[in-house]
Amino acid sequence: MAFAGIVRKTLGPYYYSRRLNIPNLFANFKEYREHDNWSREQLLAYQHEQMKKMLVHAYRHTKYYRELFDECSFDPEKYKSSEQLNQLPILTKDIIRDRLDDLMADDIGENECYDSFTGGTSGVKMQFYQDLVCRSRRVAMQWRSDNWAGWDPDTTVAYVWPAIQDLMENPGWKHRLAVKYITRNPIFYAGFMDHERAARIKEELTSVNPTIIRCFPTPAVTLLEYVADNRIDLPNLKGVITTGEPLYPHQTEAIEQGFNAEVFNLYASREFGTTAAECAAHKDLHIAVDSVLLEITDRGRQLPLGQHGEILITDLHNYAMPFIRYQVGDYGQLAEGDCSCGLNYPLLKNVVGRASDNFIDADGNTIVAISLVLHLVDNGPKVGQVQIVQKSVAEVLVRFTPDPIPDESVKRFYEEHLMRSVKGLQTVKFDIVDKIEPEKSGKYKFAICEIDPQEIRRLRA
Ligand SMILES: [Zn+2]
């Protein structure tokens, strides 16, 4: 271990900055960790200052915001309080898709940013940009919330992950060594599950002996369902951080029992990284007010504290492409009061977001449907909103909204990937619908399994 420690200390900063293009990561992490000692007033003052800087920057350096602020008679130089944001319309994925160039700042060079895609769980694909400074802050912010769950840069965080695009297909030896000694973040693909794969993941997890597991709730619970006694014992494990999907009490229970560790819910996205994270008090989620400004709204108007509404997020650090009042597609509520853990970041609760069922194949094996959608939407052609419905083992229905109407090549891409992924699937049907309706709970479900539970039991017998 001493050897690994020396490698990390000497090569770590170089590797992150030069190889991964994440500059000043350790300095940013140190800075963010210091905010853990700040008072609520200090945190909000910092947020206000960063917000004003971002508004002024957006006005000066992007065509989109210059036009918008002028239309709304909004003067960023006179920004005094977040209530003034009510004057501004919200930013939607459609606007970003239509006006990507006008949203890019004219003072950030191409080699200072990198592009990224989001979409999977909202069913709408969207391209966006981040600058490298922002990217580094993102990772540092993630490190801080991981730290609340017991992690530090000298320990391992293992990913039980459904997004195949985050996995390198044939990693070279340099990458494997870096994962082992420097980044210490091995990824295990859990988008498909049978007993064999579950046993292998269990063995590999045991061998890397992580301090933290980061996972989507559905794949983690599915993995535990497939291993003996529904348990994986990892002696060093301090916490399991769940993200990407809503976390339900029965899942918390299954994960806590299965891994014998505390579960920490995390609200994060590809656009903003860590937005709010649960602390050791396990009450509500602490909002990263030093990274984002989060509003709870109804049709673009801020709601009083404690009311449930639509979440809008402004990124305080992405100067390459300002996101101001962005509609993430989730709902939540600000909680009053302080947390017993001593952190002073304000609290968020009852986040209702996006969810999915699992699919079943002809052998009764589980396909974590979130992995299908993440691949189809994030890696696939441009389509409107998408929902996939497994009608039976042999039939899947794909619903699209008509913006744009999918052509034959799009349908072929969906059909081929679904056929390859779901054994026994014979027919993929397509339907164009005006709108994909949310569930009664308000949750948007991007994958639905309509197979009768009795039939699932029969297939598994
Ligand atoms: Zn707390």
* Number of DSSP E strands: 22
| CATH domain class name of the largest domain | Alpha Beta
Q: Termini separation (Å)? A: 46 Å
- Label the structural class: alpha/beta
- Any guess at the CATH architecture of the largest domain? 3-Layer(aba) Sandwich
Q: What average pLDDT do the residues reach? A: 89
Give the strand content: 15-25%
| Helical fraction | 25-40%
What small-molecule ligands were found? Answer: zinc ion
Tell me about the biggest sheet?
12 strands, mixed
- The CATH homologous superfamily of the largest domain corresponds to ANL, N-terminal domain
Strand line-up across the major sheet? 4-3-6-7-8-9-10-15-14-13-11-12
Q: CATH fold name of the largest domain, please?
A: Rossmann fold
The number of domains is: 2
Which spans of ≥5 residues are poorly predicted at pLDDT below 50? none
Number of helices: 14
Radius of gyration, whole Å = 22 Å
Shape: globular
Describe what this molecule looks like in 3D.
The protein has helices at residues 2-19, 25-35, 40-61, 63-71, 93-98, 100-103, 132-148, 173-183, 195-208, 217-226, 249-259, 369-379, 408-421, 453-460; strands at residues 113-118, 126-131, 157-161, 187-189, 192-193, 212-215, 239-242, 262-269, 273-278, 285-287, 292-298, 301-302, 308-315, 326-335, 347-352, 354-356, 359-360, 366-367, 386-392, 395-400, 427-432, 444-449. It is an alpha/beta fold and 461 residues long. The chain folds into two domains: 2-40 and 130-352, Rossmann fold; 355-460, 2-Layer Sandwich (GMP Synthetase, Chain A, domain 3). The strands form four sheets. Strands 4-3-6-7-8-9-10-15-14-13-11-12 form a twelve-stranded mixed β-sheet, with helices on both faces. The protein has a five-stranded mixed β-sheet with strand order 16-22-19-20-21, covered by helices on one side. It has a three-stranded antiparallel β-sheet with strand order 5-18-17. Helix 2 (25-35) packs across helix 7 (132-148), helix 3 packs across helix 4 and helix 10 (217-226) packs across helix 11. The chain is globular, with a radius of gyration of 22 Å. Bound molecules: zinc ion. Zinc ion is lined by residues 279, 281, 286, 339, 341, 343.
